[in-house]
Every structure is written in structure tokens, then in C-alpha cells.
Amino acid sequence: MAPKGYGLGATSAEAVLASVPLGRREQILALAAEQFGTRGYTRTSLQDIANAGGIQPGSLYHHFESKEAIARELVGLYRTELEAIAKRAFEQQDGGDPAIALYEQLAGLAAAVAESSVRHQAAVRLSIYELSARGLELPELPGGVLSPVEEAMTALLQEGRSRRLLRTAVDPSVLARQICTTMRRVGAGVPEPPDPIRPVTLALLHTLLAGLNRESLPDSALDRSPAFAAARRAVDAWTTEVVPDGTDKLHTIRSAARLEFARRGYEAATMRDIVRQAGMSMGAVYRLVDSKETLLRSIMGSYYARLSSAYDAVLTSGSRVTEQIDALTWIQINAMEMFEPEFEIQHAWFREIPPEVDIFSEGLSVQYARIRSAITDGLESSELRVWDGGCGPDPDWATIVACLSNLMWIPADIVSDLGGRATLRHSRETTLRGAASVLMTRAVERTASV
Question: Does residue 252 surpass a pLDDT of 70?
Fold first, then answer.
């Protein structure tokens, strides 16, 4: 069942330049988007943009006064497209079952957000990862860049709840934010988004609507699982760690670097910034550390070691896959709350393609592979389910499973707004149990089987 009224466009500056004749201004924007997407905003200069297109620098300055002006226009074009997508979300569907009509609208809007993020990867990365770290001043965007589509998604979900197509336990506005953020991640959170992207967006959307778990476990059972007990012990260990006192100079330097990397981003932060934040002299700092790369490896290495240990405890607890997913979600929620600077460093890192320093430990990669393996085992044993209607005859299940593992990472702003326990309840009501009512789920699955 394909979403209606939404189509894929060009996915790169190269495709844009090859497909239609562009004016000089549009050509510069396309070239800049390509450079920002591959090199990162900070490491891209106007000269790089000019060289990429064989353009004289003077021609760039005729159209744009600065690199910042180009970035502002790219984000503005992305915002304009999202506003158009939001308007199309309410186009009338062909009559018939209201549950099917609502699903068509939700699927169309979700796919359009993902596809738009592919077309506007540079703008997405600028708006998500770069702004606070780079001090890039953009036009005021009330509610954030995604607000138009989030408002449209919320309205659709509220209408669904009024028709008893969405369970009352689910907050439509929170679910709308999660769906839109998830779809944006699919399109722009990785260097090479899945192609085609629609099967993945449909699988993710249906997971949030119908749930992963075939058997709806109550919260009391999930709270008593061995996996959740292991997660609690890991989180408790984080809270009882001994923090060195102010006389530990290396700890002071690492703490300063942690804050600067989170605030400015690794690329923009300098040793001078770290020295200033630590309140020490440059010589004193360099006697203890030789570079900011060393500091980054130390900070993120400790962070990943904590996560890896917690993952190990959950994944070897002997619990069912559903219980493991729930416990891992609790770990992720607490990690975002307790290690906010590390999370921001990691978050900002994704804008750098390719990164110059490998801060992702081999151990963490192994853990993510194990998570994906657990989800695959759950699907093969039928403990878990993913509706594949509309995904085509040969869906890319490896990509879909990888994306499903990311559903355990609830958007940070939701965690911040709701708090840990309420966020966990939201995850259980969506990712595990599914937000849609039985009426809607049966209608969609019945149509898909025809």
C-alpha cells in the first residue's frame, strides 16, 4: 500500500546539476549542499564550493555574501518544502474505510519527511547538528524546523484518536514528534540512506503503530524481567561512581573538554577553549595531555565502556527479546539524562562525513551488532513482528532491522520534556505494544493481505 501524493526527488547536488539546467544561484546552492554534506559545514570554505563547480570566487560573492548566507538559504528551502509537505498531508483520500484513509495519510507524510531529508541532507545536518556548535545564525524558526510536519502529524493522530483508531494511552503530540524525528534520521542520519527509502519508513511507522511484540506484556512483567533488573543495576552503578575532587588536574581538564566538545563540537573546539574552561595555563594542560584528540578518545572511551558493560548485562540476562529491548531502552534513556555532554558530542559527530577521528569503539559496534542479532532472532522466532505490506517483494530486511534498533533511542527532547519513566512508558505503548487500536491494525493488515 503506497503512500499517495508524495514522490522522490534528486538526492544529491550531482543529480540536481545533471537533471535540470540551473541558474548560477541554484548551482551554487547545489554545490554547497554537496560540500556541506560530504565535508561538514565547518571544514567547507567558499573556495571549496567554487572549486567543486569550476566557478570563480567572485561569482559566488555576487550571489551570496558569505558561507553563512548560503547555509541560511539551504535551511530556508528545506523549511519551505516541509511546509508544502504539511499542507499536502490533509489532501482528501479516496473514500472507504477511515482507518485505511488515516493510515494512507500517516504513511504518506512519514515517507515524505524521510524523502525530504534525503534531498536536503546538508540543511538537515545544519539544523540538527551544527547550529549550537557553530553559532550559525538562522532565521527564527518557531518550534524548530520540523514544526510544520509535526503539527500536521499531530492533527492526523488526534483525529485518529477521536475515531478510536489510536489508543488513549498514547499522546498524539509525543508520537508525532517521534515519528517525524525518526523519519528524518532515516533520511539524513547516515551517510548513505537506504534506497529506496519507502520500505524502511513503512516498516518503522507500522512498528510504532502496531508494535513489535506479538504478546502484549504488562508493565509489571517488564519491570520484573531479569533484563530490566540488569539494566537497573547498571544505571545504579553509574550513579554511585566516585567523582575525583578538584585537586585532580587531569579530571578538571577532561571535564572542561567534555563541556567544550558538547557545546562547540569537536571540530570547532580548540585547546585554547579547553584551557580557558579549565582555568589552567596552556603549559599545565599540555604537560598532562598531548592533544584534543587524546581527550576525545578518553571521554568517549569511558562513555562507551559504560554502555557496553550495561548492554552485556542485559543481552546475557536470559530474558526474552522483548524484555531485552525494553531494558536497553531504559539504559538509553538514562544514558541521555546522565551523560548529556557525551550524547551531544556523539550527536554532533554525525555531521562529519567522514570523521577524522574514530571515536566509536570496536566494543560498541559489537554491541550494536548483537542488538540487531537479537531483533533478527525475535523476528525469525515470531516473538517480534514487522508488517511488510508495501515493502515490495524483496525488502531489505538488514536495513530495516538496523533502523528498528534505533527506535530504542527516543529523541532527546522527548526524554527532556517527559522525564525518564514517562518516556519508558511511551516507548512501551508504541514500539512494543503499538499506538494503533485493534480496529485500525486489523483494517491495515486486512488490506495488506489482499
Answer: yes
